[in-house]
Amino acid sequence: MTDVWEGLPNHLKLIIVGPQRSGKSSAGNIVLGKDVFDVNENLDSSRTTKCEIGHGVFADRRLTVVDSPGWFYIHTLQDTSEMNKLEIENSLYMCPPGPHAVLLVIELITAFSAKYQRSVQDHMSLFGDDVWKHTIILFTRPDWLGVKTIEERIESDEGLQWLVNKCENRYHVLNNLEPNNREQVKVLLEKIEEMWAENDDPYYERYQIL
């Protein structure tokens, strides 16, 4: 049987994007296996305002993770400040020549309404159309699914179906309540490997869309 890590770059570069309070920073900490990004429980201040970078090692692989500022989940691009838009775009430059994967964090607490969908589409457009080929949806807070599976949740929501289709059915569920569960990180990196192997370009370069 082929080793799941064979063929992967020995230094994986990931950027994490998504709405505010979706669990982005927590997800970054879980992937790295340590507390690198500040996670403040105070809702008035639990917001990343500038790109932050963290490094770690897992399964003999070096990891670089960039946590980017979030946007308000129903804001259009026009509603988001120029400073935030520049910082979100800047996340691509933090791990040259570009990330191997973009992790789009969507928490399962909030219904994926038409406004939410428009907001995600708007803000992802900052990276250009080709970014979807390098994107994996990272669903957080699966405890809110109840007895439903993630597949049942997607099937019952047209917006989530659209999102999953945009990412060519690439998604992963990350349980923020189990930060020490390294198996969920291993499975995520396996999915990144599959996407990496299928893409013509090994990483996403910003200059391609300028």
* CATH overall fold name: Rossmann fold
The CATH superfamily appears as P-loop containing nucleotide triphosphate hydrolases
SSE pattern, N- to C-terminal: EHEEHEHEHHEH
- Number of helical segments with 4 or more residues: 6
The biggest beta sheet, please? 6 strands, mixed
The CATH C-level name is Alpha Beta
CATH architecture: 3-Layer(aba) Sandwich
User: What is the helix content?
Assistant: 25-40%
Radius of gyration: 16 Å
Number of strands: 6
The tally of domains stands at 1
Overall shape: it is: globular
Mean pLDDT, nearest integer? 89
How far from one another are the termini?
42 Å
Query: Structural class, from secondary structure content?
Result: alpha/beta
Strand portion, in percent? 15-25%
How would you characterize the overall build of this protein?
The chain has 210 residues and is an alpha/beta fold. The protein has one domain (11-199): Rossmann fold (3-Layer(aba) Sandwich), CATH 3.40.50.300. Helix content is 29%, strand content 18%. It has helices spanning 24-32, 82-90, 114-124, 150-155, 158-166, 182-198; strands at 11-17, 52-58, 61-67, 101-107, 135-140, 171-174. Strand 4, helix 3 (114-124) and strand 5 (135-140) form a beta-alpha-beta unit.
How is this fold's topology laid out?
Elements (H helix, E strand, L loop, with lengths): L10 E7 L6 H9 L19 E7 L2 E7 L14 H9 L10 E7 L6 H11 L10 E6 L9 H6 L2 H9 L4 E4 L7 H17 L12
Parallel strand pairs: 1-3, 1-4, 4-5, 5-6
Antiparallel strand pairs: 2-3
Pfam family, one: AIG1
Protein name: AIG1-type G domain-containing protein
Family: Belongs to the TRAFAC class TrmE-Era-EngA-EngB-Septin-like GTPase superfamily. AIG1/Toc34/Toc159-like paraseptin GTPase family. IAN subfamily.
